[in-house]
Amino acid sequence: MEKIKNRLEVCLSPAIYDKHADDANLVVIVDILRATSTICAAIQNGVKCIWPVATVDEAREKKKQGYMVASERDGYVLDFADFGNSPFNFTPEIVKGKEIVYSTTNGTRCIHMAAHSRAIVIGSFLNISALAEWLIRQNAPVLIFCASWKDRFSLEDTVFAGALAERLLQSEKFESQCDAVTASVDLWNLAKPDLFGYIQKSAQKGRLASKGLDDCIEFCLTADQTNVVPAFINDRLVDIFGEKGF
Amino acid sequence: MEKIKNRLEVCLSPAIYDKHADDANLVVIVDILRATSTICAAIQNGVKCIWPVATVDEAREKKKQGYMVASERDGYVLDFADFGNSPFNFTPEIVKGKEIVYSTTNGTRCIHMAAHSRAIVIGSFLNISALAEWLIRQNAPVLIFCASWKDRFSLEDTVFAGALAERLLQSEKFESQCDAVTASVDLWNLAKPDLFGYIQKSAQKGRLASKGLDDCIEFCLTADQTNVVPAFINDRLVDIFGEKGF
Description:
Two copies of one chain form a homodimer. Chain A has eleven helices and eleven strands.
């Protein structure tokens, strides 16, 4: 008997999201430089949970309520925030056991756009193997959702989407009729032999470098630094990699 | 003295168009399978002009007014239309000297979205060399606008965007800080050694094949069949390749 495979799609921009939206989807949010890499690092470093908020006003309000707040727009730390969006901010000494409110230019908005879905998880190179393993275990359609940059296509998010899509397709539990899957897997295979070199071509590398914020790029492109799979549950991001019966 | 270069961008979906829109742009509309290939073929075959209309209702109204009408949705010829969207419909015997009203699922909508721009021209492999030459002559920013499929990313439109972008960048009259340019040029270089084979992977190939409409794919991927550069002027598409002082 032929096994029924689950649908795999890649959404290249929030502007296209409504064409891919399906309540049955497991949605993987991808914002490699830097939000989803940073979320994985923070949870690996012992953050109790992260409250993603979409707007600056919500982040400011949470700060007044006494939360530790990470918030940036266009790479700049907002004046009321404790820190911005670099994964190096979230060291164990600072974040262990803490609840953190988090708002970024692109990544946190996507989490809220996809809130209707069966599950929302956070993807980055830091947790790619754990994430692929978790997704393959679920037996459900997967949408890899690139946060991109202000709705434009983003090279680094797409290359990661291709890396993850390739692993899911290799499991033979998924099938794709989505051109964005085809293109992202092909771009990943071009980038793979020298990922850091390839991402030098990305517009986001230039944006970060112009603000002196590109020190974290190599870190954000380094695979398998953690086994956490952050998921959005009850308005918070918590690790569910080890959960039984999700 | 360093020459000032013009901006080159690729827009991968109509859903992202407003992020790229600029009144100064020369906009190249791309809908390889099949609208923009067909428009180039029709004008090469002697059509006097094409009136692109966005909606089915407009097309039906024009038919009542006595125009020859080409109109399709999702690959199906509309009942009132003279023919659909295959380039093989527009033979010299049928179309020479005629004015044709034309409405398709994706391509004609984009022409109207970009109507604010400095100029709108039609791009396909059929006219790629003439088009590149014309664009390089204009000294203005260029946006290559992929019509895609119902706002989703489209492999064949993106590969063409890469082929055209590569020629424009090689002229050294253009510069790009757009990740969609980078990705489309890279995908074009992957596809180039066997373009027909590569496009077999596209979702649109499957859509056309399921309706027996994939007979035109090789034709639509064959470069330099014509020197026409169709442009949208006074609500009509006419050839402007030879125009002086556009």
